[in-house]
Specification:
The protein has eleven helices and ten strands. The chain is α/β, with parallel strands linked by helices. A five-stranded parallel β-sheet has the order 4-5-6-7-8, sandwiched between helices. Bound molecules: manganese (II) ion. Manganese (II) ion (MN) binds next to loops.
Length: 247
């Protein structure tokens, strides 16, 4: 099982959740929402070959935390995985749009200068803007669009730009999400939960609940779950090879 986007530090018992991940999963990417959360969240993954911690600054927090780009720069040499970053175009975050743009651009420029990273990117109601910025700052590494919810046309642009995708149950339950996933190249897709912000059976989803997304995806693609798991493990190996020196 692979969860390419979860928030380990936001569970009620992060250490226990991390331990179960290490025992039961192939891989979990533990994303953060602020640079100041990076040291503590990284410690959850210490000595775990299963969990990698991503350095992030969430677009919904950019309005309050934009000053933390300095801290982002400080930690970047040690962070090979980046997320959660990106843009959020929802009306409730419109006020912070200038800071969102400034933070996202700064992070992309830093990743470019650092030789590239793997980026887990939020693009809610802002897919076109995210793609424009990815085009403006080349060589940032490999962009993985998490929970992509743009249009088919935007999806085609993302595919042409070389983006990868991480998809979860909430997406796979809707007709629109299913249609988008059907258009994605199967060799550039991974699974995610975005837990604990999503739910499985009425409770906050844990990383191992990514099993539900695997079932949906296997069904959608007409594969067995073991066949799908093999494909996802291969995809993860290929993704890791896109950026040199990745743990
Ligand atoms: Mn998230």
């Amino acid at each position: 099982m692979i969860d390419l986007h979860c928030h380990l530090d936001l569970y009620p018992s992060p250490r226990e959740t991390a331990e179960i991940c290490s025992k039961t999963m192939d891989f979990a990417l533990s994303v953060t929402t602020t640079p100041s959360a990076w040291p503590g969240t990284s410690s959850l993954a210490a000595n775990s070959p299963t969990i990698q911690t991503a350095l992030g600054l969430h677009p919904q927090l950019a309005g309050q935390r934009y000053r933390e780009t300095d801290l982002f720069e400080t930690y970047l040499p040690d962070a090979k995985w980046i997320g959660e970053i990106g843009l959020d175009g929802a009306p409730e975050f419109r006020e912070s749009w200038p800071q969102q743009i400034a933070v996202f651009r700064k992070i992309l420029e830093l990743c470019n200068a650092a030789g590239g990273r793997i980026l887990s990117i939020h693009s809610r109601l802002a897919a076109t803007d995210v793609l424009v910025m990815l085009r403006q700052v080349p060589n940032t590494g490999t962009a993985v669009l998490h929970w992509f919810s743009g249009s088919s046309a935007e999806l085609q642009q993302a595919i042409a730009l070389g983006c990868w995708f991480s998809v979860g149950s909430p997406m796979l339950r809707t007709k629109k999400g299913q249609s988008l996933v059907q258009q994605m190249p199967k060799n550039r897709v991974l699974t995610e939960t975005d837990g604990p912000f999503t739910q499985t059976a009425g409770r906050p989803a844990c990383p191992w609940n990514v099993a539900e997304a695997e079932q949906h995806l296997a069904h959608l693609w007409g594969m067995t779950v073991p066949e799908l798991s093999d494909l996802l493990r291969t995809n993860l190996r290929v993704l890791r090879q896109t950026v040199p020196g990745l743990p």
